[in-house]
């Protein structure tokens, strides 16, 4: 067997990979992690169950791989200049109906597939949270946030506000409305877009 | 037919009601709203499907009735003296493993049974949120919260923080740890247990 003998199979294999991962993400958003099965993914992706199982030992690993494929592994860390830019980039994600459904599905999986929620958190959380912490630290140092702000609590509080937005605001909310929501939350913790406005409520 | 003729059936009927509602709540917590079926509820409660359907036209109404039965309809509005007491009563609920699972199941149902999440919000939200708003307004007026605090945003932010706690903290967290978490969040929005400490970070 030379490498030429195997070559023709590789693009097809890559196609099957992509179809399986895209279908898994689709089904996660449509039906949720618990209701999604390897059988369904195989059927809709047009491959056999064996083809899926050869690549992914179980549903959780398949769904984690689907998230990684969609969002990059590791996902590119966005360059965030300041809090305003962070609010804008966050609002773009949170106002996207597909992302909203995916995020709620990830939350909904905490009970039955905790590894999936954990993987999502690791995938997005670790590096991005560090980038966000850095933005907030700079904002604090330049007087846009109070000197005594607790960066960890602030991150929890903003992530929580996003869960609350996903739970209570309509999926038709615009990025601008979502930015306003996030800025309202930030204002409560003493964020001032311009430090000279520091005394205004 | 006199009322005496029907009387013997009524305790049994009430027993069936209670069994159905308790089982529905159990299954909601165990398996989630999507995975729970009227069939399962009937089987585990030891009644026929027809008995369930005679009382509840569909699964969503059954699950809503189960929440109402468990939490009162309308649920008693707790007397909350101040923010400290609110934090304590909130922490008691949020640190209870069964409540944690139920709350995550309610969040997890937003996508497939939005009426259930809505009913839960109405059941707990409306009157309780007003009671909470009153507590925060008094805290603001007595200098425990900043004069410019936005009560609506504060409620969103605290509810969000609870979703974040349910998503990221272990179910073994104690009420005391949960109180600390809530107080940390409140401190970021300028809450001071004693107004004379107002200048400390």
UniProtKB/TrEMBL annotation, chains A, B:
Residues 14-74 form the HTH tetR-type domain. Residues 37-56 bind DNA. Pfam families: TetR_C_11, TetR_N. Coiled coil: none annotated. Signal peptide: none annotated. Keywords: DNA-binding, Transcription, Transcription regulation. GO terms for molecular function: DNA-binding transcription factor activity; transcription cis-regulatory region binding. This is AcrR family transcriptional regulator.
């Amino acid at each position: 067997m030379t490498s030429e003998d195997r070559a023709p199979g590789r693009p097809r294999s890559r196609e099957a990979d992509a179809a399986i991962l895209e279908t898994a993400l689709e089904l996660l958003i449509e039906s949720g992690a618990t209701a999604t099965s390897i059988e369904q993914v195989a059927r809709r992706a047009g491959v056999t169950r064996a083809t899926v199982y050869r690549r992914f030992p179980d549903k959780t690993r398949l769904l984690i791989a689907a998230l990684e494929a969609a969002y990059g592994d590791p996902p590119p860390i966005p360059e965030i200049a300041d809090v305003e830019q962070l609010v804008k980039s966050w609002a773009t994600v949170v106002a996207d109906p597909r992302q909203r459904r995916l995020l709620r599905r990830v939350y909904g999986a905490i009970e039955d597939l905790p590894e999936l929620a954990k993987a999502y958190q690791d995938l997005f959380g670790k590096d991005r949270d560090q980038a966000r912490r850095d933005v907030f630290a700079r904002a604090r140092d330049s007087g846009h946030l109070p000197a005594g702000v607790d960066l960890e609590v602030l991150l929890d509080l903003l992530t929580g506000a996003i869960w609350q937005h996903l739970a209570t605001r309509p999926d038709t909310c615009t990025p601008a409305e979502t930015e306003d929501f996030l800025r309202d939350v930030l204002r409560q913790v003493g964020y001032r877009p311009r430090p000279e406005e520091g005394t205004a409520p």
